[in-house]
Amino acid sequence: MLGIDPQFIAFGLIVGILVGLTGIGGGSLMAPLLLLAGGVPPSIAVGTDLAYGAVTKTVGGWRHLRAGTVDMGISKWLAFGSVPGALIGVFASVQLENAYGDSYNSILLSLVAGALLLVSFAILYRVWFMPHLSEVERDEVELTPRAKGSAVSFGLVMGAILGLTSVGSGALIGLALILFFRLKPHRVVGTDVFHAAVLMWTAAIAHAFADNIDYGLAATLLIGSIPGVLIGTALLPHVPSNGLRPALACVLLAASLGVATKAGANIPAWLIVALPLAAGAVAWVFHRRHVAREAAADGARNTATSTPAYR
Questions:
Q1: Is 182 helix (H, G, I), strand (E, B) or coil?
Q2: Biggest CA-to-CA distance, the chain
Q3: Fewer CB within 10 Å, N or C, the chain?
Q4: How buried is residue 302: exposed, middle or buried, by Cβ count under 10 Å (0-12/13-18/19+)?
Q5: What is the value of pTM for the model shown?
Q6: What DSSP line would sit under 3-21, residue for residue?
């Protein structure tokens, strides 16, 4: 890549802010941006995304570590699975490219679209059907044998997805930290970003050996993403996650449909817009119902405590 393109600097800034705020957005948003708006070949988009993301997540992970929002125990056990998983994913990517040649581009695009679709629906499922999850969230995971085994297993599968598609370092691992390990939101983001730095360096180095990285493009993305992730981590305590999660899920859903069309799927443009909007509307309705139920429950509790008991 020659010169510095302001478009890619803007991509880095936007995605960097989202990474700092949510732990999500690195591969999940940058890969489709490079594919759809940047016109970057799929294998180069995946490798370059991982290289730029490794540096971005390192900056964010260091900030979160200093802020005390990283659960080092569960992060370590996730890495025991995700690091070898990422190497398996990169190896599979190279073997598929060697086997299918130029037709591998459409295969890789389909894999990226599928990973994005999985991430978006997983986040929406949490928003739609598990609104009370925050009531049992905790600051630190108790490292029982079951928790360790689960972390290694999740890490292995999600590391393989990341190595193959560059999607999932934040979105899928973050979702596991929410759904299965029940960490509080700020601890989820910190732990997710810190662990993703280790994971993405592993996958990026492997892709470097496969010659899948455009270093000039990665450097241009970093011009925007490093200040972006610093801005995002600074904003984290002041931004409510209730609205951010479903909004990001809807963006990922639109990105998955867009990448699928690039892979050859016949998806009309109106559906790419309408489906994420409909998902966001459903999420808003579920959220309003949850708020109304919580308000009614609080009112009932207040009434019960303020009403005198007559004998």
A1: coil
A2: 85
A3: C
A4: exposed
A5: 0.72
A6: S--HHHHHHHHHHHHHHHH
Q: Could you tell me the CA-to-CA distances from 139 to 68, 110, 239 in Å, in that order?
A: 10, 37, 19
Higher-pLDDT residue of 160, 23: 160
**What is d(CA 159, CA 178) in angstroms, rounded to the nearest whole number?**
17
3-state secondary structure of 183: strand
- Say what percent of the chain tops pLDDT 90: 7
pLDDT, residue 52, reads 84
pLDDT category at 88 given cuts 50, 70, 90 is very high
Residue carrying the six token digits 């990517």:
93
The first and second tokens of residue 162, run together, are: 């990341």
pLDDT tens digit sequence for 47-70: 888 888 888 788 878 888 888 888
Supply the DSSP symbol for 311: -
SS3 135: helix
Distance separating alpha carbons of residues 119 and 117, to the nearest angstrom: 5
With beta carbons less than 8 A apart as the criterion, state whether 167 and 119 touch: yes
Helix (H, G, I), strand (E, B) or coil at 70: coil
Residue that is written with structure tokens 């999607």 in the block: 167
Closest CA to 241 of 279, 189, 172, 276: 189
Measuring CA to CA, how many Å separate 115 from each of 8, 35, 79, 141? 23, 14, 20, 27
Give the torsion sign (CA, 171, 177, 182, 183): negative
State the average pLDDT for the chain: 79
